[in-house]
Structures are given as structure tokens and as C-alpha cells.
Amino acid sequence: MDDAAAAQAPLDVLVVGAGPTGLTLANQLARFGVRFRIVDKAPDRTGESRALGVQARSLEVLQTLGLGEALASRGETAARLLLHVDRGEPPAIELGHFGRDDTRFPFILFVPQPETERVLTMPLESCGIVVERGVALQDATQQPDGVACTMRHADGRQETIRARYLAGCDGPHSTVRKLAGIPFEGGAYPQAFALGDVEADGLAPGAIHAFPGGRGLAVFFPLGRPRTWRIMAMDPGEQRAADDGADVTTHALSLAELQSMVAGPTWGSVTLRDPVWLTRFRLHHRQAARYRENRMFLVGDAAHIHSPVGAQGMNTGIQDAWNLGWKLAMVTLGHAVEPLLDSYQAERWPVGRTLLRATDRLFAGFATSVSGGRLTTAFRRVVIRWVVVPALSRRRIRAAGFHFASQLGIHYRTSPAVVEGDPRLSNGPRAGDRLPDAPVLRDGQRTFLQEAVASPHLHLLLCGPVGAWQRDDVAGLARRFSDVLVIDYLARERSDHALVDPTGAALNRLGIDGHAIYLIRPDGHVAYRAGGTDLGGLAAYLGRWFTPRAGVAADGISSRARGHR
Q: H helices within 407-556, ranges in order?
């Protein structure tokens, strides 16, 4: 196909929205070589840092692109929380490393959202992919073989784009969701809040400062850029009506108004100045009734919004995109069957519902605790100092909180697209779980298990002593699914082209003391697993969801996998 014909050909995917969610989806599509465009109605990348916390699972996802460590270097990982319950010395709670050894990122990263977006844009720019800004979706019509999209450019020009699939990463006001006719169910919290990026006098640097002990609430996060502090304060002003389902219903705010909001909680000890962004808002808790309408998909805030408790919003969107991206890619490339796309709804909608309910309960408790009169305020100070602070200082409770916030425990065990094979394994991550990380060796060089399987393919790990595997069976499977499958051995002993686990840490985390089969999806979750060395169940699984290479019989022998060059 020449350049002119290629320009007229339908896209595989049109991505609407270029925040962290849309950029993650674009990166996933790009690594598969899918034809796509990414547009955003905003003329430039946002300078506002709505999201600050990047969780461990999101960093693992970004590390698949070689970006996790790069982003971590730009933020703060050893934060302290100072709880100002009275005018005395505030107790400190460490929010640094949590000691979890199955991830390289056992912390919450505090980094401004523009930095996350900047890092996510780098690999796209390196391969010539441009985010088309000032381009808004006006209409979309579903057709049997795609979606006809009417776009309006900043100069008023209109353009019709045909794409096989449309992905709405366009936030809480999602045009894609409205055009798809998908209800956005839920409501707004009664409390009103304010946000601001400011300089603040009276705060020690390098810590989160929470003021729950006075009248109201104020929390200061170390932002760094474009100002030192991000402040969130409860707005005692008039409650405002909700709009059509935005995550934040914003209204103008002055520095003087924000100063008056923090005066009560801080006992007048903090002075604000030099603001670059101020807004007052209300929070909503909503979820789309479904994440798919035929060829139109909802991702991130277009699909679900909730309170910021636990820093889950942006991270959930990143993982929505990571889940959907490889499925869209494999289907559009002809490597997977179309019903695989139904598993996006089956896997991610329950995650959104669980997070919505959990953050709703946490927020309700939080909001109740900071309301009330003088007696309630005094009681709250006693509870925080003598109950909350000791509890949060306990390693076990902090680890449980990190398990929830980090999203490392999210799984898809009930998905129709994952299978527990026979004989069943009794230990280790189950089908649908995230693959844990561990150091391993490849060709004598130290790497990590997650990094070793990071590629735009399904990755088969044949675990246990290498000599027990039937090489002809392995080679035949590899040849039949050579478009989608990469194969590695994982063993303690050294062997040519095998991943070596000299300490046994990786095999132990997989629950293996003999032989086992682990098939890893491109999003890092287990697609299929079974004990033993029989590949029959695996072959049946692959044949159901993925397309064998044309002209290759089921018992063909050959391989392009790393272990069978």
C-alpha cells in the first residue's frame, strides 16, 4: 500500500483523550504496530496536577515500556505524613518503602501529573507518533465494520475519520460515552472542596501535612512544580448542584477564599501566596453501566469516577488502558478472535465497581470524621492521636493499606478469558492474577521476571528442569502460534536460552516445586496455568482465543521462540 492509499485506509483505533489513560493506550497500541491516531480537544497538555500518586502496579505497567524507573526518578518515594492534631509537635507516619519483595516498586510515588504525561509521551515521540491537539470529537456513527467519526479542528475544519474501534479516554464529560448512549450512574457527595497549587509559609518541607484536628480539614502535598504545595481543603461554603456527571464540578476560587478555608484547620499557622491554579469543586461517585457499546469503548474517567481517597483514579485508568490495548491490537491484527474484546468489560468493570464502593466507604468515614461542632472536633483529636496514629504506625496495617492502594492484588480470576488447567496447581498466582516479579538471569545477565516477559506477545514460561519437556511438542506449539507466542524455560539450573533462577525466588513465587506451565498475557497477568508438562490443555486454550498461523497444522514443528532458535 502506497502512502496515499494508507492515508485513506480506515484506522484500527481512534483514541479520544490524551491524558495518562489515553497515552497509556496509545503506547500499548504502538508497541504492537497498530494503525491509530490519538486526539485531544485541549490545545495543549494540562499544566494542572490533578493526580499526584502513582501506585506500584502502574509503575510496573510503565516499566514494561521502560518508563517506570524513569518516572520514579522524577518524584518522591520516601514521603512522611505529619498529622497536625493540635498545636503541638505533629506525630509522623512513614509512607516510604513497604518491604514487599515481589515488586520493584514497593512504594507510593508522589509526582505531578504533567510529569507522568511527559514521560508517557516520550516513547510515542521517539517513533514519530504525534498527539493531535485541538481536535474534538463531534459525532460518531457505528457501522458494521467500524465507526465513522466527525472531528472538528481548532481552525474550524471538519474531518471524517473511519476507525474499526473508538476508545473514549476523554474523561468524566466523555463525548464518546454520550454518543454511545451509555448511562453514567451514581451521584455527587454533599461536601464541597477546594484545590490550589501555591506557596505556603509555615510548613516543613518534604512531607505531607494533614490538619484534621482543627475546624474543617486541610491537606498539603509536596508538589515541587509549578509550586511547592498542592492543597486540598474542605469548603464550608454553600453546597452546589451537580452537573452532568463530571468528577469535579469546578467554580472560581480566590486566594483569599482558600486562605480562609485553611485558617480554621491550621489554627492560622499557614500563610498562602503565589498561586498558579485555584478551584473549588465537588466530588462524584459514578460508573458507566457498561464499558463497551459494540465498537466503542470507555476507558479511565470516562468509565468511572470516585473520591481521591487512596489515589486510585489515574492508576485505574492506566490499567484499564493496559488491559484493553493488547486485546484491541491482537484482534485488529488478526491474531485473536473478536470475542476476546468482551473480556475487557468482564475484567475491568468489576474492578471499577469494587474501587468505587471501597473509596465511597473510606470517603464517607473521612467526611463524617471532619464534620461536627466543637465537642466533635475535640473528640476527633483524641481519636486521631491515641487510636489512628498508633494503628497507622503498625507495619501490618500499613502493609494492608499498601496492598489496597498499590493495586497489586487486582485479579481477573472470574474472566472467561483465563483458565486454570489440569493438573491444577495449589500454590502461586492463579489464572487472572498479576505475575509477581523476581530477579532472574538471562545469558548470565541479571534482569527481572516481569521484564523478561515484557513484549507484545503471549509469553509461555515452561517452569522446572529443562530436560523433562518434550522438545517436539514445544516446537510444534510454537510454530502453530508463532504470530502471538514467545517461549522461555524457567529453571534453577543453567541451560542455553533459559531464564535461570539460581536462588529459586521466581519459582517459589510461582508456587512451583516440580514442573508447571504459565502463559503470561501482554498486560502481565496469567492467562493459563497448569502443573506438569502436558501441553494439550494449553494448546486448546490458545486455539479458542488466538489465531493459528495460516497453513500450519496443529502438530507442526518449528519455532521462533527464544528457547528454540
A: 449-452, 471-480, 505-509, 536-545
Contact 270, 260 (CB under 8 A): no
CA 379 to chain centre: 38
- Crossing angle of the two packed helices 313-332 and 56-64, in degrees rounded to 10: 30
CA dist., res. 421 & res. 458, Å (int): 17
- Ordered by where they begin, the domains of the chain are 419-564 (3.40.30.120)
Dig out the grid coordinates for 435 from the structure: 505475575
50, 210, 223, 331 from 110: Cα distances, Å: 12, 16, 8, 36
- Transcribe 120-150 into DSSP letters: HHHHHHHTT---EESEEEEEEEEETTEEEEE
Residue 69 phi, psi dihedral angles, 5° rounding:
-70, -35
HEC per residue, 437-455: CCEEEECCEEEEHHHHCCC
What pLDDT, in 10s, does the model give residues 168-224? 999 999 999 999 999 999 887 777 888 888 999 999 988 889 888 667 789 898 877
Q: Would you say 474 and 559 are in contact if contact means Cβ atoms under 8 Å apart? A: yes
**Which residues, including other chains, have CB under 8 Å from residue 92's CB and lie 6 or more apart?**
80, 81, 82, 83, 207
